[in-house]
């Protein structure tokens, strides 16, 4: 377990916010711009990347080069960079590039710092267009937005048939994974799709009860895990083990909701 001194905690949070501001400045000129195009990182399916994704990661890495050059980096667009401090910054410059291309403000910038065994210590979910920022870890659990600042807290436990569940894609992964998800979703009151990382922010803020996804990468999950756990929620894989490296993710508002959802996924 990585122990972080108060002065280092304050520095890490300050660096994360500086990176979020740099990401905003790099991304916003491109959002909803005329003629925005995307390359695909895959040939079988459309996995888009835009000039905004690349520019944001370059801008965030520039902040780290100046303020925390001793730390390692894992970024979606530019890969890994070694460090000597034992800390790793995990960056997803635009989580939800498909939403970004469609002009939907449900994408976000994900920033996390991980310690030993890649356990997330702190995470930040930033939505530049609507100016909302959610952060958790290192003693913090708060959001800032047009309505001001407030503490983050997940909603109290309630039965599955009163829960709201979200996922990015209706397919949720393989046919088997999709069947497990829909078995769980059929027991919930309301199912919504397409929010990408913003769904995790909504869970941390107390608006929904569950987010369930599959096929995720390390940079997809590190920041949401830190924010949700700091707000009182539970995040694991579909077996109940930690999910810090991605894969299948089950995020719940409470231990009770998590247990019920895990049972439904297992069938």
TrEMBL record:
One of its GO terms (molecular function) is metal ion binding. GO terms for biological process: L-histidine biosynthetic process. Its cofactor is Mg(2+). InterPro entries: Inositol_monoP_superfamily, Inositol_monophosphatase-like. Transmembrane segments: none annotated. Mg(2+) 1 binds at residues 76, 92, 94-95. Gene3D superfamilies: 3.40.190.80, Fructose-1,6-Bisphosphatase, subunit A, domain 1. CDD domains: Bacterial_IMPase_like_1 (cd01641). Belongs to the inositol monophosphatase superfamily. This is Histidinol phosphatase-like enzyme (Inositol monophosphatase family). It comes from Gemmobacter caeni.
